[in-house]
Amino acid sequence: MHNLALIDSHAHLDDAQYDGDREVMLDRARAAGVVLIINAGYDLPSSRRAVDLAAEYDFIYAAVGVHPHEVAGLPADYLDTVRELSRQAKVVAIGEIGLDYYRDLSPREVQRRVFREQLALAKELNLPVVIHDRDAHGDVLDILRKDGAGPGGGVLHCFAGSLEMAAACLEMGFYISFAGPVTYPNARRPKEVAAAVPLERLLVETDSPYLTPQAHRGKRNEPAYVRYVAEQIAALRGIAPAELARAATANARRVFGLPGEEPEI
User: Fold this and answer.
1) Fewer C-beta within 10 Å: the chain N or C terminus?
2) How far is CA 121 from CA 78, 109, 114, 187, in A?
């Protein structure tokens, strides 16, 4: 089978797990048909690294922001730093931001405040947002309904919510992104949602180095494996992988304002 031309819409390429072979890992991604990668920051240092990587590689773009795990103890001027980073070339989104009530590594009231502050910044800058939501569906929806994401819209990354939550997010103009869990045999809910989301609002990602697809589960994830996500969703929907890839790639270009058209692979 020919490689699928895909955009990995969410990865953490600056993670220390890649320090020994980052160049080789990125070469594998290109060889596997990955045409662009969005590298998402999760705190101020990783957001800076995301900006640096995007400057170094023509096929990498950056999202900058503070993940809910990292919001406790932020400096008072953190938002100025995110704003400054967001103005760097090739920064295409504010993220990843949101709420995580599963691990609860930061106080929930601080998570909510910082999420809302970063949503407001994205609106001010007319940038899309990349949203992390784990076991916080009600509060994420509540904040999105009240605060909104602005005309830049955004993405619910590695979506783990219900069909009803997906419908509510779609109604607000968001895109829904799926990662490795959609390939897991017992992942009933992601499969159900991935089969139902309108094709023009669906993205694929790896969240590398985490959430490795079933075919390589137990090993480090990497962008080359995004095709397993695309192939699984295509199978769930009863369409050709190439059709799914074309749609997901066009959607990523649209929401993140990315240049170019797909080469034939």
Assistant:
1) N
2) 12, 19, 10, 34
Strand 91-100: give its sheet, edge to edge.
6-11, 34-40, 60-64, 91-100, 129-134, 154-156, 175-178, 202-204
Task: Say what the pLDDT of residue 209 is.
Answer: 98
Phi, psi torsion values for 192, nearest 5 degrees = -60, -45
Residues making up the chain, counted from first to last: 265
* CA-to-CA dists, residue 12 to 42, 113, 163, 177, angstroms: 9, 24, 27, 15
Contacts of 138-146 with C-beta under 8 Å, sequence gap 24+, read: 139/99, 139/101, 139/108, 139/112, 140/98, 140/99, 141/165, 141/168, 141/169, 143/99, 143/112, 143/115, 143/116, 143/119, 144/119, 144/169, 144/172, 144/174, 145/172
Q: What's the rounded Cα separation, in Å, for the pair 248 and 209?
A: 21
Give the pLDDT confidence of 155-212 residue by residue, as tens digits: 999 999 999 999 999 999 999 999 999 999 999 999 999 999 999 999 999 999 999 9
Between CA 162 and CA 159 the distance in angstroms is 9
Q: What is the pLDDT of residue 150?
A: 83
Using alpha carbons, list the distances in angstroms from residue 26 to 22, 92, 112, 225: 6, 20, 35, 12
Question: Looking at residues 233-257, what average pLDDT do you find?
Answer: 97
Residues 118-128: what's their mean pLDDT?
A: 96
User: In which band, very low, low, confident or very high, does the pLDDT at 16 lie, cut at 50, 70 and 90?
Assistant: very high
